[in-house]
Specification:
heterodimer, A: 797 residues, alpha+beta, 7-stranded mixed β-sheet, 6-stranded antiparallel β-sheet, 21 helices, 39 strands, 28% strand, elongated, B: alpha+beta, 9 strands, 41% helix
Chain lengths: 797, 339
């Protein structure tokens, strides 16, 4: 809401600087986003008097002038035909014009020029902003202007405009008058009302127009007035410059009056040319499906039955509350005008405006909500302006079609209730006087107080609202901090799931990985980029109705794509290596289109590239995570299409895959634009591995005080026998004294034979009871060998 | 004879003194103490010495032997020490060199701040909860006193999935979920991702909020202020002051914006606070009784406060991160800075 201080001053005496006023407004709940000084639009442009004009020695079209700017003479070269004695505007050396250009002194065809003569355009104005100036000419002043004074001040263009952020609960304050009322409260002074004062000139409004409201629910009040012998002309300078100051383009006296009242009172108004209202009739009804109206902006709108239209007896003439039709606007020769002042249901206007993509200053106001009191006041104010400006003769009477409404409501409360909400002492006399200043009267009824609230404060419905009205004026400085002074003691807690996530993050960071956070939505291309199978459930991603763009339009079903994109980002941004992880959700619909909320699964992903990064480095990090959560996993070959078939694995816990890890398939890497770098990723469902055992305390196991004895064994097995299966077989056999098994070597050679490999295994033995003898160990090694023969077909080398 | 012994002694000690390594010392040992060494020969010659002179002579020879052996072992120890020192010297390294990569990783600044926040509020008796990011219109709006087509929906640009489902625009959605399933006393904080269709230089369509809700008998605006002051002093600094300004949120009444003194300049005014000395960090208020009633909590018996703020904003203030977009770019050179 733009509010020129000069306009506010029509109703309230403002005797503080704009900055202090802004502070006071913030104090009562109105944030001032900006203080706009009109006279800062251009700087260094001042009033000067031409004292001498002489021809330019080197150019016929130029003149050399001497200009008095109040005790100092400037020499300015110009092509403007000025004569001695004229008072004009001149930009000095260093002046900044409205378009941002800086004026510098310099030679013009060999003659020094210390400035430039300026017109409206140079100071950023049009003829609507100030009086007595011509577009395309230089600014000229009469003798009363002070030499050296800033030109904008001399033009009277020196208002200060507040840009006030009005919260959604105070739609009434989207008006100069209501804002002035709030300022009066903030400054502890009084506020005048916009004047209603006009004389009618006979005839009856009912002879000019009849009004029927078919849907009073969406149009609870419709008021109209008529003006005849209308003369269309340009509005007064005051009205034009005020409208321009709040960003409205002046059009003609009648349209400007509706906009002026809209800004001043906050009530949207509309004016019809009576000639265009077929049958002198206005009917407010729901549109027919498919009904078409072309609005003032030239747009053709196809309406539906949920929308409200204003019609005459033949056709729609306006989309209710949003925009008038092209067919009924005010024209140069309009002689009879019908003014409309209506209350439309807020939600209906909002819906229609959204559906049609049609917005106006009126619809913006209606969407926020208009109170019942404004229609009559605004209409009378508009007629006052018609009367004052001599725009026509006002017809007797007003049309008022309305539902019953309450002018005020009562809210009973006690001082204790207010005190219990605010937690500070509430002096009754202060409460009463503050509420009175806000227009809320207090009476006593039994042991209760009763607040009487006028209809225009729709936001005040209960005791909490009364408390807020009081404290915003009384001041929050009166509320002193307490810490649950009268409330019960509670003990805080962190859920296990979050503790598990913290453990995962700490473990991965300790393994040298860096945590990332990426967007939850992504491009629908992700599935094709990962070459997912046509039937892969991960293709079922939830789509947004109104995404920012296609690239951020579906909710991810895997973290792989985000991780790959982040790896590629780092690769192309000068990072030689990266080791990353993310803990985030994927969004898995139970069915599409979405009928119920989806399953949001918590996952961890890791990704890396660079020197020293390989399959086993990634596996080691994931194994640390699983170990930290007391989980045993097995690994099986993975068939995911985006992974290297020979260097990837499914992570199996309790017989089920809970995730995967591996090198990215070279084809997939190329799709992501990577040619010569091996990328590695892994992903585990945290939900799939989450259980109470994750947070169990590790249990102490006793260890031997006696020497540990080590034995190595080299066996030959078939190529496809995995190290994991051999170790599993040994572990399953529960070999006595065996405390550790490690594969330390595998290799192939011609000697060993085609399709075979040699595997070197080291064993550690220890006993809690004493030092083991060679015989005891030999016996166990014999058992191990037979286990390996049976399970893996191993032969000793 | 005595002269001869003195001569041997002088020669031996001189050789020992001059020896520069253990092998030269060994030569000395062999020359004098070896089987056919000079001192051994003298011992053997003892048979030729007159019987009465033998004790005195023996004593002299033993002294000689003792002196040479003593000098030898002293020199051996000295040389061994010297050689070890030389070895260490040879193994000297440039201790200003480093392993090229740091071995330990980092947590994201949003995680670091989130943990700090959780710590602060858990210590004040709050529990932590999370909720769905894809939320129904009912919890995100309607139960928070924001009906369909209500102007206050303009305060947030919402991503919709369909008419009734959306990406939550505020962690406040969890307020409604918690109030419809729990009875007071309730004291809970909710950290989590939220979404708004705002994407420009200073906005990210995804950011993180931290919601707080306390419902009990006798909860006042003073308690809200006390709670937030404790929080602000713990997260920023002990001298941080808190200021409440009237504002509007549909689900709180009265509603306030909360400013804290700028942690950069401690209220003196700087670039971060645009010279005002105050930084706006959160919105809060007394839970609107209409919301309590809609969610099944008797507003005549219970009252409460709620607050919500951006974790991203706190992280940006605390770490001096100039642009929110940096948080989601995940450049290694950014990530490595925080621990």
């Amino acid at each position: 809401m733009l509010a020129p201080i000069s306009w506010l001053r029509d109703y309230v005496n403002i005797d503080v600087a704009p900055e202090l006023l802004a502070k006071k407004l913030v104090g009562i709940g109105f944030e001032v986003e900006e203080i706009i000084y009109q006279n800062k639009k251009a700087s260094g442009v001042v009033v000067g008097k031409i004292v001498q004009v002489s021809p330019h020695p080197n150019a016929d079209r130029l003149r050399v002038t001497k200009i008095d700017i109040g005790g100092k003479l400037l020499q300015v070269v110009t092509n403007v035909p000025v004569v001695g004695g004229e008072v004009i505007a001149v930009a000095l050396d260093g002046a900044v014009l409205a378009d941002g250009n800086v004026i510098r002194a310099g030679e013009l065809r060999g003659v020094m020029s210390e400035g430039m003569l300026c017109g409206l355009e140079e100071v950023g104005l049009t003829v609507d902003d100030v009086k007595g100036q011509k577009q395309g000419d230089i600014l000229r002043f009469d003798g009363s202007a002070t030499l050296g004074q800033p030109a904008l001040d001399a033009l009277g263009y020196n208002d200060v405009i507040l840009d006030v952020a009005v919260t959604a609960n105070r739609p009434d304050c989207n008006s100069i008058y209501k804002l002035a009322k709030e300022i009066a409260v903030a400054l502890d002074t009084t506020c005048k009302e916009p004047e209603i004062n006009y004389v009618t000139a006979g005839e009856k409004v009912s002879d000019y127009v009849s009004v029927e409201v078919k849907n009073p629910e969406l149009c609870p009040r419709y008021m109209a007035g008529a003006v005849r012998n209308v003369k269309i002309f340009e509005s007064s300078q005051k009205i034009k410059s005020r409208l321009r100051a709040v960003g409205i383009r002046p059009i003609n006296n009648i349209v400007d009056i509706t906009n002026y009242v809209l800004t001043e009172i906050g009530q949207p108004m509309h004016s019809f040319d009576r000639r265009d209202l077929t049958g002198d009739r206005i009917c407010v009804r729901n549109a027919e499906d498919g009904e078409i109206i072309t609005t003032l902006d030239g747009k053709e709108n196809r309406l539906d039955n949920s929308m409200l239209v204003i019609c005459d007896s033949a056709r729609p003439v306006a989309v209710a509350g949003i925009m008038g039709g092209l067919n009924s606007g005010i024209k140069e020769d309009t002689s009879e005008v019908i003014f409309e002042s209506v209350k439309f249901a807020r939600d209906s206007i909002r819906r229609t405006s959204r559906t049609l993509g049609l917005r106006s200053d009126s619809s913006a106001r209606f969407e926020k909500g208009i109170d019942f009191a404004s229609q009559e006041y605004a209409l009378k104010r508009a007629l006052t302006l018609v009367y004052e400006s001599g725009s026509g003769d006002i017809v007797d009477g007003l049309i008022d079609v309305k539902v019953d409404f309450k002018k005020e409501r009562e809210i009973p409360f006690t001082i204790k209730q207010i005190r219990d909400i605010l937690g500070c002492a509430v002096p009754k006399d202060r409460l009463v006087s503050i509420l009175a200043r806000l227009g809320i009267s207090i009476s006593e009824r039994g042991n209760k107080l009763v607040a009487t609230v006028r209809e225009d404060r729709e936001d005040i419905v209960g005791v909490n609202d009364i408390a807020e009205e009081f404290i915003r004026v009384y001041g929050y400085r009166h509320v002193k901090p307490t810490l649950f002074k009268y409330a019960s003691l509670t003990s805080g807690a962190i859920p296990d799931k979050l503790k598990v996530i913290d453990k995962i993050k700490d473990t991965l960071a300790a393994c040298g990985l860096h945590e990332i956070v990426t967007y939850s939505f992504t491009s629908p291309e992700f599935a094709d980029k990962l070459s997912l199978d046509e039937n892969d459930g991960a293709r079922d991603a939830i789509k947004l109705l109104n995404p920012i763009g296609e690239a951020l339009s579906v909710m991810r079903t895997t973290l792989a794509h985000s991780m790959l994109e982040t790896l590629v980002y780092n690769l192309t941004h000068f990072n030689k290596s990266a080791a990353l992880f993310e803990v985030a959700r994927v969004y898995l619909p139970k069915s599409l289109p979405l009928a119920e909320l989806p399953y949001e699964e918590e996952r961890v992903s890791i990704g890396a590239y660079g020197d020293g990064v390989d399959f086993f480095a990634v596996k080691a990090a994931l194994q640390e995570v699983l170990k930290a959560l007391h989980i045993n996993a097995n690994y099986a070959r993975s068939e995911r299409p985006y992974l290297h078939s020979g260097r990837s694995a499914e992570i199996i816990v309790d017989g089920k895959s809970v995730g995967y890890l591996g090198e990215i398939h070279p084809k997939t890497a190329r799709i992501y634009g990577v040619d010569n770098t091996r990328l590695y990723i892994g992903e585990i469902s945290i939900d799939a591995i989450f259980s109470s055992k994750n947070l169990q305390k590790s249990k102490f196991a006793p260890f031997s005080k006696f020497p540990t004895i080590e034995r190595d064994l080299a066996v030959v097995v078939d190529d496809q026998i995995t190290a994991g299966s051999m170790i599993d077989a040994i572990n399953k056999a529960k070999i006595k004294y065996l405390s550790d098994v490690q594969i330390f070597d595998t290799y192939k050679s011609e000697q060993i034979g085609e399709g075979k490999k040699s595997v070197g295994i080291s064993f550690s033995f220890s006993s809690l009871d004493g030092t083991l003898t060679d015989d005891e160990i030999a016996l166990q090694m014999k058992k191990i060998l037979s286990v390996l023969k049976r399970a893996s077909g191993a032969k000793i080398r | 004879m005595k002269e001869k012994l003195d001569g041997i002694k002088a020669n031996a000690l001189e050789m020992i003194d001059k020896a520069v390594n253990t092998s030269e010392l060994n030569e000395v040992r062999v020359k004098y103490l070896g089987k056919s060494g000079e001192i051994s020969l003298v011992m053997r010659d003892m048979a030729n010495v007159p019987k009465e002179d033998r004790p005195a002579m023996g004593k002299l020879v033993n002294e000689l032997r003792g002196a040479v052996e003593g000098a030898l072992s002293q020199k051996t120890a000295a040389l061994a020490q010297k050689e070890e020192e030389a070895k260490l010297k040879a193994e000297e390294i440039d201790i200003t060199l480093c392993q090229s990569d740091r071995a330990i990783g980092t947590l994201h600044p949003l995680t670091l701040i989130r943990r700090e926040l959780i710590d602060i509020f858990v210590s004040m008796g709050f529990s932590v909860d999370e909720g769905p990011e894809i939320e129904s219109d009912l919890f995100n709006f309607q139960l928070l006193n924001i009906p369909k087509d209500h102007p206050s929906r303009d305060m947030q640009d919402t991503f919709y999935i369909n008419e009734n489902m959306l990406l939550r625009t505020q962690t406040s959605a969890m307020q409604a979920r918690i109030m419809t399933t729990q009875q007071p006393p309730i004291r809970v904080v909710v950290p989590g991702k939220v979404y708004r269709s705002d994407d420009d230089a200073s906005h990210s369509p995804i950011f993180n909020q931290f919601e707080g809700l306390a419902i009990d008998k006798h909860i006042t605006m003073g308690d809200l202020q006390g709670c937030l002051q404790t929080f602000a002093q713990k997260i920023f600094s002990k001298d941080t002051k808190v200021r409440l300004r009237p504002s509007y949120f549909p689900f709180t009444e009265p509603s306030v914006e909360v400013d804290v003194t700028c942690s950069m300049c401690h209220g003196k005014g700087c670039r971060v606070c645009k010279g005002s000395g105050w930084v706006e960090i959160l919105g809060a208020g007394i839970v609107n009784p209409a919301v309590l009633d809609m969610c099944g909590i008797d507003s005549k018996r219970f009252s409460g406060f709620a607050f919500g703020f951006g974790i991203d904003r706190i992280a940006m203030i605390k770490y001096g991160i100039p642009n929110i977009k940096l948080l989601y770019e995940n450049d290694m050179r950014f990530l490595k800075q925080f621990n």
